[in-house]
Design brief:
The complex is a heterodimer. By secondary structure, chain A is an alpha/beta fold. Helices cover about 35% and strands about 20% of the residues of chain A. Chain A has helices at about 5-20, 45-50, 60-70, 90-100, 100-105, 135-140, 150-165, 215-225, 245-255, 270-280, 305-310, 310-325, and strands at about 1-5, 25-30, 55, 75-80, 115-120, 145, 170-175, 180-185, 195-200, 205-210, 230-235, 240, 255-265, 290-295. In chain B, strands 9, 12, 13, 14, 15, 16, 17 and 18 form an 8-stranded mixed beta sheet that branches. Chain B has a 4-stranded antiparallel beta sheet with strand order 1-8-6-3, with no helix packed on it. In chain B, a hairpin with a 2-residue loop joins β12 and β13 (about 300). The chains are: A alpha/beta, B alpha+beta.
């Protein structure tokens, strides 16, 4: 099996699906000849030609709108937005059309498209290249929001997203693109889009996270183990809709819950997880829910980005707080 | 000495042509002062100086085509290293629009910023969790009740909730607080720690009429073991009575019954065994570990008397008393119930004469004893009234024969009918 980085696993998934499903097309700014700003589509145009790997104009609204039209008419477009901060011109298209075409047409049309975008900070890029805006899409009905956190999950979840009959906003943690590698079997096996992944089993406290924060969360869990605290780490992965069962059963087991997100703390997906636990597992809670998150400010310029993003120390402090309460 | 490399002035451009230098070697320059004009594929741009200092060396001349990231200018920044141009310069801090200062050998994977790259392998096990068995969690209580219990020192793990879905209520906490043992780490009035055996039993939940209430504890375990027995064991039961009319005074009834089972096992060792029906194999045990089924309000509890074959009446009585006490105080541990080799169900105290008790795999036999009663029995052509113990023996007919069962029961009766 090939040992690949997360971004290479994405390329593998797209190549696999393009090879096996002629309705899959890849599109976006510089995705063809250039291979994408992060090289996620490297080599795809050479293999599948410019008709299936399409370089678009610098116009995000166009990319989303064209993809929706293609999807409604039977193609399976995988559109790339270069940075999540550039995704806002697509929001109208995604929310008003991609998320609603199925219900608007009483099921006559669906939108089997994927909108891929890098997400989050940590690569010293300008601040509007470093956003975590998953909550904005998670709030909108009719759209799945998926964030992989390892090469294997990137491969399996992107395949599932492409095959899903409805629109998926696929947010890729930029910081993890090349951070490490993992063996990924290029066997076309998709992962389910309705489940969390338990990355570490524990008995004292449940830590729910997703995207790049998986790295700090696992590091903090390892640190707390030395203090005798057994942390269960759950990668939410499918940020919307959320797999409630895995989270609730874990909290019922441990009695404590810490939520870690890179996005600003207010109104985020973490707030949704907290509400879920409060509504459905309140009687199991032995201490208040703790959220560790980015601050309620714009992502700062890159010299300060590591003060903005939750560090391992901040996550560990959050776990200790949950254990004390 | 600092070296300034030609930054990437576009998006991934590989080279730039020098249009003209604006400075020469020996000049003193300020930060942001234009050093030179270069032409890229897109435009002619001025490159500003990232440092203040004296120009020590210009590596290229007008008209040269310079690969991106190669050394462009050496600066003497007054750190005393001017005369050592060959010394490898420390990577300068970026000041111009985020130039990459270190030559990179391969595609960095991004057009902005700096991508962390490594070949370190992800070490993780990602589990997609299936539904877990409910009811294994910690006690459930509203946060306010938890805070209340914590405030008065009641340990919730020692309580059973009486609220909906076993929720611990404030009333449960109050009740526990008034029954001393639930106070965590409490001491009695003399200041002495209470002995473990004085642990009071948890409050028994009142019956919730009309509600579907999940079964818990021993009752739940009973469901599992009975279901397994029904699906695996081929049960056959025989009945008889032991006449104890001739017993000398002072016989310990339960002790005598245990002794008779030992006698039965001596006659037919195959009854003190574990049977594996899948492998068609049985394991006959030398040691007799007798499970005693005890009725409690919570359900059936089955502690095990160890090695009853080697114990005399007094030792058996002592063991029986321990079991009785443990059952009463609900302190029978899982170890106390593990791995019996044969079972006795002494059910006759209230009512019931014979029964078809159920063999729980892997054991192969269970003896039921009904209530002792006065029976009219024929004696030497006449009738007398004798005390008798009704006996029921259920055995697993997959591995034991009816003949063996009869011989086992006969040996039991023979032993039971002895005067002492």
């Amino acid at each position: 099996m090939a040992k690949v980085a997360l971004v290479e696993a994405l390329t593998m998934a797209m190549a696999y699906e393009m090879k096996h499903d002629p309705s899959v097309v890849v599109m976006g700014e510089d995705v063809g000849k250039n291979g994408g700003v992060f090289r996620a589509t490297l080599g795809l145009q050479d293999t599948f030609g410019p008709e299936r790997v399409i370089d678009t104009p610098l116009a995000e609204a166009l990319i989303a709108g064209v993809a929706i039209g293609m999807a409604a008419m039977g193609l399976k477009p995988v559109a790339e937005i270069q940075f999540s901060g550039f995704i806002y011109p697509c929001v109208d298209e995604i929310i008003n059309h991609a998320g609603r075409l199925r219900s608007r047409t009483r099921g006559r049309l669906s939108v089997p498209m994927v909108l891929r975008a890098p997400s989050g900070g940590g690569i010293h890029a300008p601040e509007h290249h470093s956003e975590s805006n998953e909550a904005m899409f998670a709030h909108m009905p009719g759209i799945r929001v998926v964030m992989p956190s390892s090469p294997q999950r990137a491969y399996g979840l992107l395949l599932a997203a492409i095959r899903d009959p409805d629109p998926v906003v696929f947010l890729e943690p930029t910081r993890l693109y090349r951070l490490n590698k993992q063996e990924v079997a290029d066997d076309g096996e998709a992962l389910p889009l309705d489940t969390c992944f338990v990355l570490r089993e524990g008995t004292d406290v449940t830590l729910v996270t997703w995207g790049a924060m998986v790295v700090e969360s696992l590091a903090a869990a390892a640190e707390l183990e030395k203090e005798g605290v057994s942390v269960e780490v759950i990668d939410l992965a499918t940020v919307s809709p959320i797999d409630e069962q895995t989270v609730l059963e874990s909290v019922e087991k441990t009695g404590r819950c810490v939520i870690v997100q890179e996005a600003p703390i207010s109104g985020g997906v973490g707030s949704e997880v907290a509400a879920l636990v409060a509504e459905k597992a309140l009687y199991s809670l032995e201490s208040p829910i703790v959220r560790v998150a980015g601050w309620d400010t714009p992502m700062p310029l890159f010299k300060l980005e590591h003060d903005y993003m939750p560090s391992t120390a901040r996550v560990a402090a959050g776990i200790r707080k949950a254990m004390e309460g | 000495m600092k070296t300034f490399n030609l930054p990437d002035l576009g998006e991934g451009l590989q080279e730039a042509e020098i249009v003209s230098w604006h400075v020469k070697e020996g000049d003193v320059v300020k930060v942001d002062q234009p050093l030179l004009s270069v032409e890229t594929a897109k435009a002619v741009v001025d490159v500003p100086s990232p440092y203040a200092g004296r120009i020590a060396k210009l590596h290229w001349k007008d008209g040269d085509i310079v690969p991106t990231h190669s050394a462009l200018v050496d600066f003497d920044v007054g750190d005393g290293s001017a005369a050592a141009p060959a010394k490898k310069a420390e990577a300068p801090k970026p000041a111009a629009p985020a130039p990459k200062m270190e030559p990179i050998s391969e595609d960095s994977g991004t057009v902005v910023g700096k991508m962390a790259t490594s070949s370190a392998l992800v070490e993780e096990t990602a589990i997609i969790r299936k539904r877990v068995v409910k009811g294994t969690g910690k006690p459930k209580a509203a946060p306010a009740v938890r805070a209340y219990a914590k405030g008065i020192g009641v340990d919730l793990t020692r309580l059973s909730g009486t609220g909906k879905n076993d929720l611990i209520t404030r009333a449960d906490v109050d009740k526990a607080a008034s029954s001393p043992g639930a106070i965590a780490g409490s001491k009695d009035r003399r200041g002495e720690a209470r002995p473990a055996t004085a642990k009071p039993s948890a409050p028994i939940a009142p019956i919730a009429f009309g509600e579907m209430v999940p079964m818990k504890g021993p009752r739940r375990a009973m469901h599992a073991s009975m279901t397994r027995a029904r699906s695996e064991v081929m049960e056959c039961t025989i009945f008889d009575d032991a006449d104890i009319h001739y017993w000398a005074p002072g016989n310990d009834i339960t002790g005598r019954i245990v002794r008779s089972i030992v006698a039965g096992v001596k006659a037919e060792p195959g009854f003190n065994a574990w049977y594996d029906g899948e492998k068609l194999a049985r394991q006959i045990h030398e040691r007799i570990d007798l499970a005693m089924a005890v009725d409690t309000p919570d359900g059936l509890i089955v502690p095990v008397l160890r090695d009853v074959g080697r114990k005399d009446g007094a030792q058996l009585r002592a063991d029986l008393n321990v079991i009785k006490e443990k059952t009463h105080s609900r302190s029978v541990s899982p170890d106390d119930m593990r791995n019996p080799t044969i079972t006795l169900s002494n059910f006759g105290m209230m009512a019931g004469r014979y029964a078809t008790p159920v063999v729980v795999p892997p054991t192969v036999a269970i003896i039921g004893t009904g209530g002792i009663r006065h029976d009219v029995v024929p004696v030497l052509g006449g009738v007398e009234v004798h005390k008798r113990i009704p006996l029921s023996l259920t055995f697993d007919h997959r591995c034991l024969t009816g003949g063996e069962a009869c011989r086992f029961l006969a040996a039991m009766i023979k032993d039971l009918q002895k005067a002492t």
